[in-house]
Design a protein that fits this description.
mainly alpha, 3 domains, elongated
C-alpha cells in the first residue's frame, strides 16, 4: 500500500479536506492510477498547500525532473513544471522549501540556476561515489544474471566498463 494512501486513509478530518488530499483522491484513487494528474490539478494542489498551511514550512520534493517529458516544439510537461517552480520561487514564499533531483540537462540547469544560490545547490553528477555505486550495481547484475554467468570474464569486465562509463549518472 503506498505511503501516501496510508497517510490519506488514516488522516484526521482537518487533513482530509486539505488540497493535497483532494488532489490525491481525485487524481489517483478515482482514476485507479491509470492517468497522471494534469499540470492544472498539480498547480491547484501546490498553490492550495501554500495557502492553507499558514506559516508552516512546506517541503516539496520533485524527484527525477529530467524524466519528465521534454517534447520539442510544444510546451512540454517539463517546461510547465519548471515554469511553475520559477513562478513560485520568484514569489518569495518564505515557507516554501524545494528539493529537486535531476540529471544536469541544459534546460533544467538554465531554468534553476538563477533561482538558487550556490550554497543551496548540491551537484552529485560526476562524483566518485556515484560512479562507484554504478559500477557496483552493474557488476552485481552482470555476475548474478543467469545468462551472463556463462560469458568469459574479460567480456563481463568489458560490459561493466562500457555500461559504467556510459551511464551518465543514471
Amino acid at each position: 500500500m503506498p505511503v501516501v494512501y496510508t497517510l490519506h486513509s488514516s488522516s484526521s478530518s482537518v487533513i482530509e479536506h486539505s488540497p493535497f488530499t483532494t488532489f490525491y483522491s481525485t487524481s489517483i484513487l478515482h482514476e485507479k492510477g491509470s492517468q497522471q494528474p494534469s499540470i492544472g490539478a498539480f498547480t491547484k494542489c501546490f498553490d492550495g498547500m501554500l495557502k492553507d498551511t499558514g506559516d508552516v514550512p512546506i517541503y516539496i520534493i520533485i524527484d527525477a525532473l529530467d524524466e519528465c517529458p521534454n517534447t520539442k516544439g510544444i510546451r512540454s510537461s517539463r517546461h510547465q513544471v519548471l515554469a511553475l517552480v520559477k513562478n513560485r520561487v520568484e514569489s518569495n514564499l518564505i515557507k516554501l522549501r524545494l528539493c529537486i533531483t535531476s540529471r544536469p540537462e541544459f534546460d533544467i540547469r538554465t531554468s534553476l540556476a538563477p533561482l538558487t544560490s550556490t550554497p543551496n545547490c548540491i551537484s552529485l553528477h560526476g562524483e566518485s561515489g556515484q560512479r562507484k555505486d554504478i559500477i557496483k550495481f552493474v557488476r552485481a547484475v552482470v555476475y548474478s544474471d543467469e545468462n551472463m554467468r556463462r560469458w568469459r570474464d574479460e567480456d563481463k569486465e568489458l560490459v561493466i566498463e562500457m555500461l559504467s562509463e556510459r551511464a551518465d549518472g543514471m
